[in-house]
Amino acid sequence: MTNKTILVIGTYDTKDDELSFLAGVIHEQGGQVLTMDVSVLGDPATLTDYSKHDVATAGDSSIQAAIDSGDENTAMQIMARGACVLAARLHSAAAFDGVIILGGTMGTDLALDVCSALPLGVPKYIVSTVAFSPLIPAERLAPDTQMILWAGGLYGLNSVCRASLSQAAGAVLGAARAVQMPDPDKPLIGIMSLGTSALKYVIPLKPALEARGFEVAVFHATGMGGRAFESLARQRAFACVFDFCTQELGNQIHGSAISAGADRLTNAGLRGTPQIVAPGCYDLVDVVGWQPVAEKWADHPTHAHNRLLTSVVLNTEERRQVAQAHATQLATATGPVAMILPERGLGEWDREGADLHDSAGLATFLAELEARLPAHVAAHRIDSHINDADFADRVLEIFDSWCAEGIILPERRIGGSQH
Question: Which of 69, 101, 259, 339 has the highest Cβ tally under 10 A?
């Protein structure tokens, strides 16, 4: 296989043995290594390709400034800024193909920033003593970050931590060899959805869009999917977005841990990306299924989707609040927005005759949303359900008209300029 180069980052003054072991495994597997030291106080046993001074300078600071700060948090943030700039610069110069970063809480803090500074598709592995821990906020995870628990290795090498480190080294090298990077030249449509038991519009829309020459990426609206969607929208990755499951917005305003963040339903609009929106599954708030349901939901119907996920059904006033939140988020949009309002329901479970059908709640939600939509958002009421063929037909009608008018540009790409 073609040799690939892995950037190995860590504090070489205290973790030289572990980082050198990682590099050794990569070399044994036929890969190449670049090393970056993000230490502050000490020095590595052997020179690294990029020293701590190189890192601090890249962040417009110095090691002396980090030392003089007298604060380990401040010092490590200086190193994190420099590591981000230097790693991004090296990747732009095609100097490496994947990155692996080792650390405890300090190193993990830095690693999260570095991974976020690199483009989607670049293999990013963090070997951390706090992998999968609640210490790591979801909003700091780049969409394609991989984490491996650094077990039993806080003070030097042993057979337990060698097992973790060797797997991590093999994983990042294997990923660098296998990855198929996103095609920046093919126009991409981002769609938000849930599984077909709830929302089915992707079934007709995906082949129709592909027949028109567009690539389609569908994101699962269970918190992390929305975060990935919003992250790519910030990068102007999409020619157009079909934001047809905005349930994460309700999760956010009603305090669920399953949140895509406070910027849900904003990033495409702030970048001027055309948006076709429908509030799919607006009536549900997802909560963590293995935790007790909060007292505030005690009198609400619930549905246990599986052992991980439970859905709470909102009452009429709570639905009104969700409608208001949609209008608030869309008010920041600088590009065209079409809001489709299906009058027969917005999820398979709220069809007439289905368990969650609530015609009064739906009518109140639609009226509140339509009344509060900003003037630049075009409302399209349709006498159908979101999963009916009429919904997909209306979506494509709007989409085709925007293409004909030059609103949707086929050359839009990640990092590209706006129309």
Answer: 101
* Cα separation of the two ends of the chain: 41
Please tell me the pTM assigned to this model.
0.87
CA distance 380 to 394: 9
Q: Which of 123, 84, 82 is nearest to 100 (CA)?
A: 123
**Residue 192 burial by Cβ neighbours in a 10 Å radius (0-12, 13-18, 19+):** buried
Return d(Cα 258, Cα 250) in angstroms, integer.
Answer: 10
Lowest mean pLDDT among 26-40, 114-128, 193-207, 292-306: 292-306
Cβ contact 286:310 at 8 Å: yes
Q: Are 126 and 112 in contact (CB under 8 A)?
A: yes
pLDDT beyond 80 at 221: yes
Give the H or E element holding residue 166.
helix 159-178
The answer on pLDDT for 84 being more than 60 is yes
**Greatest Cα-to-Cα distance within the chain, rounded to the nearest angstrom:** 72
**Which DSSP symbol is given to 212?**
T
Half-sphere exposure of 214 (CA within 13 A, CB side): 29
- Alpha carbons 95 and 76: distance in angstroms, whole number: 24
- Enter the tokens of residue 366: 């639609």
Q: Which residues contact 251 (CB under 8 A, 6 or more apart)?
A: 223, 258, 259, 260, 285, 286
Q: Under a CB-based contact definition with an 8 Å cutoff, are residues 245 and 275 in contact?
A: no
Tokens matching residue 365: 């939600």
| CB 389 within 8 Å of CB 204 | yes
Give CA–CA dist 102/287, Å, rounded.
32
